[in-house]
Amino acid sequence: MPKTLLRWLPLALLILAALGLRTRDLAARPMHADEANQAVKAGELLESGRYAYDPGDHHGPVLYYAVLPVAWCRGERTLAGLDELTVRLVPALAGTACVLLLGLLAAPLGRWPSLAAAAFLAASPPAVYYSRYFVQETLLSAFALAAFVCARRWWSTGRTRWAVAAGACAGLMQASKASAPLFLLAALAALLAARPRPGSPAARRPVRDGLAGAAAALAVAALFYSSFGAHPGGLRDALGTYGEVAARLGRGDTGHEKPWWYFIRLFSWQRSGGLVFEQAGFAALALAGFGVALAGGSPLLRWAAAYSGLVLLALSATPYKTPWHAIHLVPGFAILAAGALAALSRNRPGRAAAAAAALGALGLMAFQSDRVARAYASDARNPYAYVHSSPDVLRFRALAAAALARSPGRPVLVISEEYWPLPWYFRGLDRVGYWTRPPEDCDGALVIASAGLADEVASRLRGPYGRSYLGLRPGFVCVVFTPRP
Description:
Layout: H1 3-23, H2 33-48, H3 62-73, H4 84-105, H5 111-123, H6 125-130, H7 137-157, H8 160-174, H9 180-194, H10 206-225, H11 233-251, H12 262-266, E1 269-272, E2 275-278, H13 280-294, H14 299-317, H15 330-344, H16 348-375, H17 393-406, E3 412-415, H18 422-425, E4 432-435, E5 446-450, H19 454-459, E6 465-473, E7 476-483
Parallel strand pairs: 3-4, 3-5
Antiparallel strand pairs: 1-2, 5-7, 6-7
Helix pairs in contact: 1-4, 1-5, 2-3, 3-4, 4-5, 4-7, 5-15, 5-16, 7-8, 8-10, 9-14, 13-14, 13-15, 13-16, 14-15, 15-16
């Protein structure tokens, strides 16, 4: 077998395993409200070819455009034809790419430590779970890793094309989510702690290459925010989104406020309703890697320690917290864990201990990943299933379709303060309307009302209706009014 094949075979097998974890039963979990909202926007772009960036909490446009080639390959051309597998393949493929990119980024640690870092990311419960989630976070992580890989190549070779590639990836980060500057600034600040060797080839043309990279970043971000020139106003709105973010963070009443130690707990151990979710072995190795970095580890290890520390500090200091932000901590922690294994492997007993520690941590991580991504994917006890849709949402479409067939010409009314992900499940159905307050005439082929509005809706119904109850998400119940014959 050629040496080149032998060198890359372990990483290739690891990537296949990562892809399997990220795609097995991919469409089984009910759509989260955020996923559904994003999927409808992607379907509208697919169907009409038009998109206009909305700074009102819809994040960047790359996610929607990334759906198009996947949908075309699967023969889908309309919102009604789009399905869960298609949209979730986008983050699944991005999450798999992260494994390859981290293996490349960690290469200075050595062949087997870099493979260990990639393996930790491949098996990480938050990385696996949110690689199966149609939101921007996994794409942002993938573009960040790609930017770091290209920047390291520029630093070691001094070639302008790598600076341009790094800038293009930074532009994709920005066009994915407005939080991109946090990770770029943390990466740059971490270089001060890394103290890379002087005399790099990149020092020959730092200003010119830096400007070339910045120009590439601006051009790529502008292309997406302007809908490739069709919506120039998107460029203005891209800047305006920071006002939206600041207002949301400043309110302090979003419902997403968490204690400062929230992310630390996600990477340690917690029990919920008789189930245990933990990453203690991985966290212990990452903490050991911090110690190795502080004791004078390699520049990459020092960079990973500073970068992870800065990102953790920034995420922990902000009251607004959601669990999908945890995936941005995984790559740095994985490099640190691999660095700890490398430091332990300096003699034969150490190598045996490192192998045992790595296999033990990876085994537990893979077990936890399968549980959170499949067995308990929408269970409220799962710390990553955040305000997740109830399995009941899978029953709404059949009820609505049957009601429309029974009552031609009459509509289905959804009357609720919050109704996502129902618009996703009702895609392709005619005569479905949405209200956040009861209209004067509430009669229809089927009426779905939130529990808080149900009595007011009932008072405006003419004729007899039966009642049934379905959950939208934990703590949010809908009353289904069905006309009686």
